[in-house]
Amino acid sequence: MKKLKKKLLTGDFKFPEDVAIGSLDDMPERIIQFGEGNFLRAFVNWMVDEMNKQELFMGKTVVVQPIPQGQADTLNEQEGLYTLLLRGISEGEIVEKKSLVTSISRAINPYEDWQAYLSCAVQPEMRFMVSNTTEAGIAYKKEAKPVDNCPETFPSKVTAFLYERFNAFNGSPDKGMIIIPCELIDQNGDSLKDIVFRYIDDWDLGDKFKAWVDEHNYFLNTLVDRIVTGYPMDEAEKLKAELGYDDKLMVAGEVFHLWVIEGDESLANELPLVEAGLDVIWTDDLTPYRTRKVRILNGAHTMMVPMAYLYGIDTVRECIEDDTVLSYMKKGIYDEIIPVLDLPQEEKEAFATAVLERFANPFIEHQLLSIALNSVSKWQVRVLPSLLEYIELKDKLPQVLTFSLAALLAFYKGSELRDGALIGNRDNSQYNIQDDQNILDFFYKLWQDYEEDEDLHGLCTKALGQDSFWGMDLTTVEGLVQAVVNYLREILDKGMKAAVKDIL
Fold first, then answer.
1. Over the Cα atoms of the chain, what is R_g?
2. Dihedral sign for Cα atoms in the order 273, 276, 278, 284
3. Between the chain's N and C termini, which has fewer beta carbons within 10 Å?
4. Angle ∠(297,236,49) on CA atoms, nearest 5
């Protein structure tokens, strides 16, 4: 089997006709990227590839391995090349696209070659910085100023890069960077900038440098959205045979993608993502888009998962295929979540339609139990705001969102604590409930006490009164405790299938 290398692109090798090959032109390195993992390669690097194909950007990306262990060596072995599979449902039709992405020039492991990393800072054409170092990556840790060594945290590496660039170009205003983090935290650009300023102070780098960072570098807040499943292990041999080459970095993801960037329109002109036909939104306030995603996409997951799992379903796709569960989801999304969101109706409904298509993706097996991790805090962030705003708007409780709270309490009914999990039971089989230990301890005792006194109203009052779980005392919401008691009694007495059908 041939290895994926650039010589395949210039030799006699025939790529399959359904593989779209990226631009083969020589281009300057214009982007430095922290992170070589699946998400960035299926999201940012693919987008750069799309711009390059249309001769809109004409720039390559240098990838920096953000931690000591990673895939920089494998990327360099394949000379930056990899195959991307995008598969899913779009406008009711199954879509499959294969691309050979050519937008990465090389990868650097700064822990092994710190100078190679710093040398990127003095390249005149370098203009953009992107990252996905996980939510834990944008964090401060006190560190000594690096001399010939690679510091530990991502923000400290950014600070060192910017300081090298500042000195190399004598603080020239036009040599600032446009920094676009993709980590899934709120205000990711602002948070990164704040930590960079802390390192500037810690390392005594001076007021002139701090002013240059502040005035001539742009730290943009972003929201990213695409499910990337990674290397298609189950199909690898079949795909290798179809492609005719071995690709260790092959990555699969869904067709849907969205990148919302909070930044000035002049910056959008420098990075012509929209012009390339990509689903990218430049805005002066991404809050409504974050709220839309959290409430509709994530909220639909969270209000559905405990119910659907106890209903007898294991994956998100199966939820879409079951008429009752699908009706439950649609009622929750269209009748209870969408009405309280402050966005144009057409835009909200289009996003909801896309969400349901994504849930139906036949190429993704999204396990409900994996989504159920930390469901209590997820319900607080993703579902509770919609419930409270619905009450304010309609002066009554929303049926599905209220039922989802009862289903959550039923899902957390465990018979024992074992290996850091609470053990639940469904149809004579066990499942692991995973959450913070204090939450698991609480629900274990709560249900053990119920076994003795069978006081369901007392159980719901105790659960809803835990303001440390919900951010407020939910017993103060008029009628909520009794509604949850009624739904939970139906679930326990009749089973989840009958209880759900009753509210529909």
1. 25
2. positive
3. N
4. 60
Query: Which residue stretches of 97-230 are H helix?
Result: 114-121, 154-168, 188-202, 207-216
Q: At what angle do helices 496-503 and 323-330 cross, to 10 degrees?
A: 50
Give the position of tokens 């919302």: 260
Name the residue with tokens 């017993």. 475
Q: Is 91 helix (H, G, I), strand (E, B) or coil?
A: coil
Q: What pLDDT, in 10s, does the model give residues 444-475?
A: 999 999 999 999 999 999 999 999 999 999 99
Beta-carbon contacts of residue 129 (< 8 Å; ≥ 6 apart): 31, 32, 33, 34, 158, 161, 177, 178, 179, 180
Residue 343 banded pLDDT, cuts 50, 70, 90:
confident
Which domains are present in the chain? 2-283 (3.40.50.720), 287-503 (1.10.1040.10)
Nearest-angstrom CA–CA distance, 437 and 456: 23
* Mean pLDDT score, 208-237: 96
Strand-pairing partners, residue 225, are: 258
- pTM, two decimal places: 0.88
Cβ atoms of 178 and 128 within 8 Å: the answer is yes
Residues 6 or more apart whose CB falls under 8 angstroms from that of 44 comprise 33, 61, 130, 132, 182
Q: Which helix (H) or strand (E) holds 472?
A: none
Strands (E), 243-308: 245-246, 251-253, 258-262, 280-283
Q: Which residues of 267-304 are buried (b: 16+ CB within 10 A; e: fewer)?
A: ebeebebeebeeebebbeebebbbbbbbbbbbbbbbbb
Given a contact cutoff of 8 angstroms between Cβ atoms, the answer to whether 132 and 40 are in contact is yes
| 418-455 CB burial, b ≥16 within 10 A, e <16 | eeebbbbeeeeeebebbbeeebbebbbebbeebeeeee
Mean pLDDT over residues 276-283, rounded? 96
Closest CA to 410 of 450, 382, 371: 450
Task: Tell me what percent of the residues of the chain surpass a pLDDT of 70.
Answer: 100
- Tell me how many helices (H) and strands (E) the chain has: 24, 19
If you average pLDDT over residues 93-100, what whole number do you get?
96
Q: Which two tokens stand for residue 148?
A: 């010939």
Distance CA 152, CA 143 (A): 8
